[in-house]
Amino acid sequence: MAQYSRISGSVGLITLSNPPVNALSAAVRQGIVDTVEKALGDPQVKSVVICGQDGIFCGGADIKEFGKNMSGPPLIPMIHTIECATKPMVAAIEGSALGGGLELALGCHYRIAHSKARLGLPEVTLGLLPAAGGSQRLPRLIGVPAALDLITTGRHVTAAEALQLGIVDQVTDHATVDAAVKFALSVAGKPLDTRRISTYPCPHVSDVDALCENVMQKVRKSAHGAIAPIACVQAVRAAATLPYTQGMEREKELMATLYTSGQARALQYSFFAQRAVSKWRIPSGARWDTSTPRPLHKVAVIGLGTMGRGITVALAQAGLPVITVETHEKQLMEAKRAVSDMLNRGAKRRGVAPPLDKISYSCNLQDLADVDLVIEAVFEDMTLKKKVFRQLSAVCKPGTLLCTNTSGLDVDQLASQSRNPELVVGMHFFAPAHVMKLLEVVYGPQSSPQAVATAMQLGKKMGKVSVAVGNCRGFVGNRMLKLYTEQASFLLEEGATPDLVDQAIEEFGFPMGVFKVSDLSGLDVGWRIRKEEKLAGLSVASGQSTRIREGRRYSPLADLLCEQGRFGQKTGRGWYQYDKPGGRVARSDPWLHHFLEEYRAQHGLVARHIDHQEVLERCLYAMINEGFRILEDGIAAGPEDIDVIYVFGYGWPRHRGGPMFYSGMVGLEKVLERLEHYYQAHPDVPHLQPCRLLRRLVARGSPPVHKWREVIKNLHSQL
Ligand SMILES: CC(C)(COP(=O)(O)OP(=O)(O)OC[C@H]1O[C@@H](n2cnc3c(N)ncnc32)[C@H](O)[C@@H]1OP(=O)(O)O)[C@@H](O)C(=O)NCCC(=O)NCCSC(=O)C[C@@H](O)CCCCCCCCCCCCC(=O)O
């Protein structure tokens, strides 16, 4: 787990060896303790280099060990021994030095990094803080403001930035271990008193209290209820105000609270869930490790509206040659200007050249004859999409993959328009498509393993977190969202206000409440779909009650607002009022409150008091219940897929893991009991009826989330 050798006569070389990221498991820690002792005890050895196997220094503590009984030597004394060593210890950093990995390097007397290395203390993203001395050493090394930035955000820095900040002593473009060994030879025998970071005073800041308070306020605002960023500020403040040993005590105290917290469990679950979804498998038996993606030399985007533009930008930024098609020259040129602006802005931010030359623009579908993959991003209209698919089938070379960007239309219906339905998949991007991380890759019963593998790999190349999901109305994300927004509207009918509902949801940790999001995305979008589905507008069957559709409760509130031209931010009025059309600051609207009162009076509804708890239970449990149905239907492979979709696409607070993980934290029995309660109170809302999988899980004693797949498998095998 740590190998030891002596090279160049007098340099002890310790190599961490725990693929794939050399995490500091108990065995690795033991290996380090043993090899350090060996090196320090060997009179021939004058200096020591610590490196990692396979081009990565160390990904930090072994996250899989968290929550279990700790065994093996602890990190803090191990790093302390390294720092106290009387022979120079040099860290040779290749790949990544993260978390405990960087803390280990900070215990060394010198750090040499490869130019492509990344360094950071990302513990905050796991609900923790750098508790192997990182919160105390980093501020002493680089100063309080820079340490606060790195530790509270968990961001990784490049080797160049690490050099500039003073985290590393040297950056090399060559073999890092060779450079470190050369360096170790050059410092052998030199005094080390000035190299032990724990002995440094923290660099002076004029008003450390004001600085920390300022950062604390910012952190509280952006944390949406997460506790780790706050503890990180407190730990760094301790470094700035207390001697090292007392600072270490404070670090330990703060870590003890975080370590056992539900938030840390949720964030660590989320870390592994994000990785688990890339290992997709679909009901046909196709899976990530047996399916070969098709190489993509050139791709196309059809339709340059908001989504098409974002997708084009993301493809070009991923380095792929793209040809884009719009029907009219004027729209094409308008889109070209917008895409170029977006690329220029992005490039400026990242300090790189804009990849403008990756994109070509055309009004002619015939230009797509030689592309390997097309993403159709035309208007969300089945007739139009079908027409485009028929045209593409005729134009594209054999083997071209046809992908549709849709937020919920039937991908199988579209596939049926193609000569090769096995080459059709859905790619549900989220707006703005060049920013949002989530991609739902929608497979149908005929989609080939290669088609799914190619779309998943393309998503990864575009920097997306891609999740493979089955085809159904709304796929996973929007299917669940429908239930959430529906409950929110019902609550307004029953006595709540948009302000109250949004406040409850924002306090839970969503960046925006459901009605603010609706105003932002535009109420007209859903209205058009409901009109097409004959749920709203003139096509509603005559004699139909305003509040019932297809035998179920229906809330026409959003339709009524649309009929008044209240489409949200774009019209300056929606569930809230804005200072002007396009305004962004939502203000409570007395008109809306009056409108709700009139609506209730008209329909004989008596407003009752609704509290935050009911808002959360109704909105979130209805959504969670649908998540269980999605698992039952085999549309998502496991709870992790749903949770990743919600965290990356719908603003679900990451420190709450995702809706399915959250239901486990609340307790499945409780979720079941509350759903039963609400279904009894609202029998005209069938979606509140607890689904079979939820009942089955409770009957099995509510196993933890990682055991649900077994229960789901049993359920499927009985169907
Ligand atoms: C390193 C990466 C950047 C690599 O990225 P890449 O894309 O190449 O690869 P993947 O991300 O796909 O990962 C490959 C593979 O490896 C697994 N993995 C990655 N990192 C770890 C890890 N750190 N531990 C375990 N496993 C890891 C990953 O899951 C993949 O596995 P798979 O099966 O899917 O192939 C990237 O991986 C990355 O960013 N990793 C995470 C980096 C990170 O966040 N590091 C910080 C870890 S936390 C830490 O270091 C804490 C320290 O500060 C030490 C703290 C001391 C602890 C003391 C505990 C005291 C407790 C006291 C409380 C007592 C309370 C009481 O009981 O009273």
UniProtKB/TrEMBL annotation:
Annotated GO biological processes are: fatty acid beta-oxidation
Pathway as given in its UniProt record: Lipid metabolism; fatty acid beta-oxidation
* UniProt-listed Enzyme Commission number(s): 1.1.1.35, 4.2.1.17, 5.3.3.8
Which Gene Ontology molecular-function terms are recorded?
(3S)-3-hydroxyacyl-CoA dehydrogenase (NAD+) activity; delta(3)-delta(2)-enoyl-CoA isomerase activity; enoyl-CoA hydratase activity; NAD+ binding
Q: List all membrane-crossing ranges.
A: none
GO CC annotations on file: peroxisome
| Subunit composition and interactions | Monomer.
Q: Where in the cell is it found?
A: Peroxisome
Q: Which residues form the 3-hydroxyacyl-CoA dehydrogenase C-terminal domain?
A: 474-578, 615-703
Does Oxidoreductase count among this protein's keywords?
Answer: yes
Alphabetized UniProt keyword annotations? Fatty acid metabolism, Isomerase, Lipid metabolism, Lyase, Multifunctional enzyme, NAD, Oxidoreductase, Peroxisome
Q: Which PROSITE patterns match?
A: ENOYL_COA_HYDRATASE
Q: Which reaction does it catalyse?
A: (3S)-hydroxydecanoyl-CoA = (2E)-decenoyl-CoA + H2O; (3E)-decenoyl-CoA = (2E)-decenoyl-CoA; (3E,5Z)-octadienoyl-CoA = (2E,5Z)-octadienoyl-CoA; (3S)-hydroxyhexanoyl-CoA = (2E)-hexenoyl-CoA + H2O
Primary subcellular site in the record, as a coarse category: other
Which family does the record claim for this protein? Belongs to the enoyl-CoA hydratase/isomerase family.
Q: What is this protein called?
A: Peroxisomal bifunctional enzyme
Residues forming the 3-hydroxyacyl-CoA dehydrogenase NAD binding domain are: 298-471
What domain of life does the native source organism fall in? Eukaryota
InterPro entries, A to Z: 3-OHacyl-CoA_DH_NAD-bd (IPR006176), 3HC_DH_C (IPR006108), 6-PGluconate_DH-like_C_sf (IPR008927), ClpP/crotonase-like_dom_sf (IPR029045), Enoyl-CoA_hyd/isom_CS (IPR018376), Enoyl-CoA_hydra/iso (IPR001753), NAD(P)-bd_dom_sf (IPR036291)
